[in-house]
Design a protein that fits this description.
By secondary structure, this protein is mainly α. The protein has helices at 5-29, 47-74, 92-109, 114-120, 124-135, 142-165, 173-204, 208-230, 249-258, 261-286, 289-309, 317-333, 338-341, 345-376; strands at 32-33, 42-43. The protein has a two-stranded antiparallel ribbon. Helix 1 packs antiparallel against helix 10.
Length: 377
Amino acid sequence: MAWTKYQLFLAGLMLTTGSINTLSAKWADMFSARGCRDDPEHGFSHPFVQAVGMFLGEFSCLAVFYILLCHDRRSPEPKMNPGQSFNPLLFFPPAMCDMTATSIMYVALNMTSASSFQMLRGAVIIFTGLLSVAFLGRRLLASQWIGILITILGLVIVGLADFFSGHKDEHKLSDVITGDLLIVLAQVIVSVQMVLEEKFVYKHDVHPLRAVGTEGFFGFFVLSLLLIPMYFIHVGNFSDNPRQVLEDALDAFCQIGHQPLILLALLGNTVSIAFFNFAGISVTKEISATTRMVLDSLRTLVIWVVSMALGWEQFHGLQVLGFLVLLLGTALYNGLHRPLLARIPCCAGMVNQEEESSAGERERLLGEGRVQAGDES
């Protein structure tokens, strides 16, 4: 079935804004400018300020949700499901997971390349799969277990690519390895966030834009307040700002004043994350969740190609192999192999069994969510 112009627009918007999100964050890290005092020109290294900007973008999704809801209610036949009423504090724990993971990843992005940053984020399916088995009682299919194992292999290959090439780039080898490990660590926290979100969304039928916006609200205000104590916490050489504190927000604003292009990069990150969330949710609704996964994988390829075209990093064959292995692992975990195998007569029965098992698992989780919601009401 051919895509409509609107579906093509959504797919293009998701791919473009998702790529801009990572590239703009890396672009900001590459600037140098003077700070507030008589310090010499230094690199823009303010991961927590960048994280605040990202949460502002997520917070804006809440405004988008209410605008769409008001527009829908004015139509003759309202179609939008606002979901059940719920206590917004239920999203405080996943928001804190998001805040911690995002901050760690922005620290890591200062240490490694944009392409490795995006590729290593694929580790999230490993920890999400394991945690969903442990805490949601989910039963993973054989193809999903294989996908997890292949993803682990892909992460090892990407890590080796960084190990062998790290000394050739602008980053020190020790920084590259530390950055890669921090990204993988952040995915453990992201997986906890995703499991918590899944539990709450199934239970309360929360609209995704509302969920993203609520988490953005908590993340934005909590992290903004934390910038105050961070200004006084001395961390030595761990920080790249002149005062060697955990985060020097005043230095960040002064650098923006001396180099306005930094503000453009930060705005690109903030605006792109809002549109990326909207486009991702719309792609899932208008096309399919599978298409969203494919586009997310293509986003990694776009970031890698653009980074090489801009001269931010060099071509490494091991990184290509790592990307392909990660792509295969992600495809197996998300069931992208089923349409291909369904065309093979000898494999069609196996695919049908997998789809029935997957559908039954979704119904079981939805049923448990409805029962729990009924017990509490």
